[in-house]
Amino acid sequence: MAEFEFDSKENPFATQFNLKNLLFYSVIAAYIHAPKFFPMPKSPKEMYEAIVKNLEKKTGKSLDEWQELVKKKGPKDRKEKKEWLQIKYGLGGGQAGTIVKMMYEGLDDYDESELMKKHFANGKEYLKPVYDKLLTQLKKLGKVKVSVNKTYLSLANKEQFALLKTTSNGLVVGVPGTAVRQAKSKEFVPAKNLGSDKITHKITLVDEGDLTDGLMKVLKTSYQKY
Fold first, then answer.
1. Which one of 3, 21, 68, 100 is at 20 to 30 Å from 122 when CA atoms are compared?
2. What would the pLDDT profile of 37-67 be if each residue is shown by its tens digit?
3. 113-225: what CATH class?
């Protein structure tokens, strides 16, 4: 590859050119090393615990003190409580949301082991073997991080590559549309409101026999991409 040297004294655009190159390659380097410098998101419980732990340090009041203030002077409506904290006291959305959320739910509601049990309870117990076998198959691809939320399970490699929801009709597997198109799958159908904007297609499994080669091809494609 040819090399070019620029003398900023002779070429007034040299400095500008080099600065643009530096910025460009810095962005590329940041993208490549993003997983190293920006680790995977924590579980919901861990995130709330971190916010609660840092509340007093960052705001001057503990969780209990903020909640007592809301009870005495804040509005009654749950949504208005959060907005009131943000507008009147300048709290961030995460801080205000956590203060209010903990007034109604508490950290125990976000215990992953308990949340996982709820996903496979109330008539959905039959889906657990399907989930277990699916996860076993996926782990053959490499490490799979499972994040348990109240309404769905998020599966991630470097970032989220699939989403699972237990329903009365079966285990819904959601994936990004790019993976479906790349794998040329006709099994997945368009879907909305699955819990993540990037998840645009789904398929519903009712037993272990639904774990087809076509399904695994799409999931493998998504895993390798994300």
1. 100
2. 445 446 677 788 889 899 999 999 999 999 9
3. alpha beta
